[in-house]
Design brief:
The protein is α+β, with helices and mostly antiparallel strands and 211 residues long. It is 43% helix and 11% strand. The longest helix is centred in the middle third of the chain and has 23 residues. Bound molecules: zinc ion (ZN).
Length: 211
């Protein structure tokens, strides 16, 4: 079974669509099935046992914005309706480490941006303006794997413990945490490369060799 009585992800998705699709915008409704889905499978709510009691669709978003009512979850009183994706709950779960790696990518963005700014011409062809920056050596995956080898499960849980999903959908690395410090140290030593679109695509295909 995929989840509850559903054999596949697709059958669960269809059942939820049947509940959600006919609902008019802005009108709150209850669904035991969707409440269960959020508390059992949502990446943030499942770890904190948050079970929204009602839902609503709002116009906008693709195809709509879906919100849950968290006011009965024993949280701060300012927290009521909050956007929550039922669809994401049906996708394969991400691990805590996946979330940390994603936050590492976010943390490297301003550094990559600054690098591109100081390297306006593609470093591979030397002709076209640079449009992308990639981790030349080590690759980003190798870099994060090296950090993973230096930390334990407890430190990973601890790193995520202060995440307030209601304030920010995407987890960001807490300053001062060991994982953040390790990332900063490793990333400082990583070699970046500024590339034009074409050369970047070739790198992804492995055509441009690492120097
Ligand atoms: Zn190029």
């Amino acid at each position: 079974m995929f989840w509850k009585d559903f054999k596949t992800q697709e059958s669960a998705r269809n059942a939820i669509r049947k509940i959600v699709d006919p609902r008019p915008f802005k009108e709150p409704f209850e669904s035991e099935l969707i409440s269960d889905l959020i508390v059992e499978r949502h990446y943030f709510c499942s770890t904190r046992k948050l079970r929204p009691s009602r839902f609503r669709k709002l116009p906008g978003g693709n195809p709509y914005t879906f919100q849950g009512d968290f006011s009965n979850c024993g949280l701060d009183r300012s927290i009521g309706w909050h956007t929550v994706s039922w669809d994401k709950c049906l996708r394969p779960p991400k691990t805590n480490w996946d979330r940390i790696v994603r936050a590492m990518r976010d943390r490297s963005e301003p550094i990559k941006f600054a690098y591109r700014y100081s390297h306006p011409v593609c470093e591979a062809c030397g002709v076209l303006p640079s449009e992308e920056v990639h981790h030349q050596a080590p690759s980003f995956v190798t870099l994060t794997d090296a950090i993973r080898a230096l930390v334990n499960e407890f430190e990973i849980t601890e790193c995520l413990s202060g995440w307030n999903w209601f304030a920010e959908d995407n987890f960001t690395l807490p300053e001062e945490h060991k994982i953040t410090q390790l990332f900063d140290q490793h990333h400082k030593q990583a070699m970046l490369q500024a590339l034009c679109k074409g050369c970047h695509n070739l790198t992804k295909k492995g055509v441009i060799r690492k120097r």
